[in-house]
Write a structure and sequence with these properties.
Elements: E1 7-11, E2 16-21, E3 27-32, E4 38-43, E5 50-55, E6 60-64, H1 65-68
Antiparallel strand pairs: 1-2, 2-3, 4-5, 5-6
């Protein structure tokens, strides 16, 4: 993810989406994506600064990387 593929996102069993630095593996940000399990993280096909997370609660959330990574 990111303009230079510098980030990796992964869903978690606790409902969080973790954003990692792809080079160092360091956690850059943690988002609460779902009440239960964050099953999927999908980067937008139109603009890689946006992604959507899906969870077990059948809801989806959208986030912008520019607002998350400082």
């Amino acid at each position: 993810m990111g303009s230079h593929d510098e980030l990796v996102a992964a869903g978690s069993d606790d409902g969080s989406v973790f954003i990692y630095n792809a080079v160092t593996g360091q956690v850059v940000n943690i988002l609460q994506a779902d009440e239960d399990v964050a099953n999927c993280v999908q980067v937008s096909l139109l603009h890689d600064a946006f992604f959507v997370s899906f969870g077990a609660s059948k809801s989806a959330g959208m986030a912008c990387l520019a607002e998350l990574v400082l």
